[in-house]
Amino acid sequence: MLCARRLRGLGPPAAAVWRGRAGPGGLGAGRRAREVSTSWSPVGAAFNVKPQGRRLDLFGERRGLFGVPELSAPEGFRIAQENALRKADLLVERVCSMPPGPQTVLIFDELSDSLCRVADLADFVKIAHPEPAFREAAEEACRSIGTMVEKLNTNVELYQSLQKLLADKKLVESLDPETRRVAELFMFDFEISGIHLDKEKRKRAVDLNVKILDLSNTFLVGTNFPNKVEKHLLPEHIHRNFVVTGNHIIIDGLHAEAPDDLVREAAYKIFLYPNAGQLKCLEELLSHRDLLAKLVGYSTYSHRALQGTIAKNPETVMQFLEKLSDRLSERTIKDFEMIRRMKMKLNPQNSELMPWDPPYYSGVIRAERYNIEPSLYCPFFSLGACMEGLNILFTKLLGITLYAEQPAKGEVWCEDVRKLAVVHESEGLLGYIYCDFFQRADKPHQDCHFTIRGGRLKEDGDYQLPVVVLMLNLPHSSRNSPTLLTPGMMENLFHEMGHAMHSMLGRTRYQHVTGTRCPTDFAEVPSILMEYFANDYRVVTQFARHYQTGQSLPKSMVSRLCESKKVCAAADMQLQVFYATLDQIYHGKHPLRTSTTDILRETQEKFYGLPYVPNTAWQLRFSHLVGYGAKYYSYLMSRAVASMVWKECFQQDPFNRAAGERYRREMLAHGGGKEPMLMVQALCQ
Prior knowledge:
GO molecular function, one term: metal ion binding
Main location: mitochondrion
Family: Belongs to the peptidase M3 family.
Mean pLDDT: 91
Keywords: Acetylation, Calcium, Cobalt, Hydrolase, Iron, Magnesium, Manganese, Metal-binding, Metalloprotease, Mitochondrion, Protease, Transit peptide, Zinc
Number of strands: 11
Catalytic activity: Release of an N-terminal octapeptide as second stage of processing of some proteins imported into the mitochondrion
Largest sheet: 6 strands, mixed
Distance between the termini: 32 Å
Shape: globular
């Protein structure tokens, strides 16, 4: 769609059980690519010190979020959205009154860009800004722009201006491959939005899309909402593991790593206890998605959602998941047996394996077998060291350096957000990454990548530099030490930075296909590939240094850590197969033959193997149903592709510059401007 070829935020899959003139980097006039800054500083040091308070500046100009002047206050979102809608009207009028040609596609992309620059930014602010007024203003902007997008996707005159271009064979043949693909993607967006319907049905499609947007936002908020229970209902000795307020205990997560079985069991049963409002919201969301799909000519929502992906259709996805499940089956049974034995050893009175057990006991097995207690590793993985490791990797592989840059007043939403300039050794500044890495109240517990502004070639010949946010939930530094990461946190950091590099290096002419704006089952390939680098001892030994002594992480410890990742890997992957299958069934044939909870129970027993726990509804916490509806399988398919790329290009030498340049040229540079399988074939030869 004109502004909807974007994911809410790209991040790792659900975890084991629940797993005027803008300043530098602002969203106004982009810098020329070769301009450099004297304010850049080394990235590693910047992340191992607390951000310095800015000098008292009573008269300094407040720049606004991301350097957008209007966004110095919540009311600015209304101004930004009104400006975007006004510009959209002018562009629609312009493209509808001109003869078809390559310029048609450029104006469509400019139209998409003008809307996305507000919607994408607001999409991030509405969930991450600490101030409720900003979140509410951003929410309203999202809704307003989203409604406009749905109307444009059913605008017959706008559609006809593109149809005239694609119906002219000579004109189509004169277009370069990227322009032709972008034109076809815009046409595809019209088609799946119901442009072929009569006026009344087109209006119905717009109304359904707006309702789906509202339901998605409501459901997403509900996935993180804590549950509470009266204090006397839980044994007193486990109270200290939770937040206690008055006579109630607040449960805000699964506490999957807690050593006490009773703590994990209580958290699981209470946090996943069904909420009637959230259940109704999910049922309505699935039902409205199905109604929309049928209205525009698809048998299920999954058939509609999978158009244009690597998989193409839900039948292929289910074949992939069933085949993968069959291959995992024996190894998963062995993993569960190993976990069961460990539970029996530590808790002989209660050795039945339950869904809240695998994350904890598989961790115990890894620690015991390979001596990989996280506390042994954390001192070697200071945040600064990990950022320097990424810097070393990108410099050797791609000729890219990350520099810390001091943000302007009002540019960031929290004082601990860091701003990075991404600079190429010969091309200069490529874009900006805002690093929102630290825990704070009301911040979502997801690790995500958000596109704030997509890259594109502007009419004046300048390149509009991409801007993204990486959001993690790391602990703050203490008085005695910098922020120290567990191996899992380090891997997540590498994963998210893979998305960021995809955005920075996607040098497409059109923002509609920039960076991660590509099929969902391909978007995770660069991020999962980065996990391979994070687990390679040749890479890790480049940066893992003890924050006090400077000692390198011994090779034996790196090797043990990498080997430990194989422990219970089949059970972990089987869990992802279960989630992906559940997602396909929910978005398959409607009306659903039974309740979403009954479907959860049946699918869990068939595709995972551990018993369903009565009076729980894990699906109500499955936030990926919003951004990855009918596409959760993408993590597994992307992992298969990333494995091929690693073996073909980097397994022999993870710092091979020629392989890095080929990876950039054949895959990252194209964003979504080329068929994914053509990119994979060109890269893997």
